[in-house]
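Researcher: Go.
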Amino acid sequence: MNKTLKKRIRQFLPRSIGPRRILAGPLRGHSLVTSWHDYPGALSGTAERPLLRWFSENVRTGETWLDVGAHYGYTAIALARLVGPNGRVFAFEPMTASAGCLARTRTINRLNQLTIVPFALGNCDSIIAAELPEVRGMLDSTAKGASAHGEQFLIANFDWLWQRIFPSNIEHPKISGIKIDVQGMEIEALQGMLGTLKQHHPKLVVELHEGVSRADFFSLIESAGYSKVGKPVEDATDTPQYSDNHSYAFQPA
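Model: Structure:
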């Protein structure tokens, strides 16, 4: 289904946000606090099928994972189920309303291993304020047109923030994996976590978006100690390598 047809169909879908059952797919039966207008693919169970399959092959019980750009929490649910009650998932979602929905999703599904962190991640000294267009419950630097209104949010440097999330008497867990889907802010998010990438060498899966310099992205990945050859998460037989809106997994070199 092309983007134009999806957009036309979406305008007729209910916009009310509330707890709704996921109808099919790997997360069938779990609840997601969202609307049919904002996230029909998640509620129908068709969204992110290749990424969830990649999670099932790479996430282990008891691990700690970061979900950077968690939106309403569809992928956070998947990660939390896989790491189990003895693992940890930190879901970073800067859109205040969406982070609130994600908190409700956490409670409804009894995912005590899931922590919601209401920040975007970027390349700054500590924390700064910014504004971006909001589209269907997410902040999107690639959004164009007057239909998207601006939303204020906070950006934190991950290496700085991670040292402050835990009390000094609690050992920081090893980060086993990171999923990044931040609508065009991929490079900034990675720049703010270079220390963590070099220290933990977690599995890394990144969705690339419009306007992100591939040359700068690969240079950054390589400087963090990763191979700049990413493995497509989706079936890429019909799409160019490193195309927009596709996810790629990167391993330490």
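Model: The radius of gyration is 17 Å.
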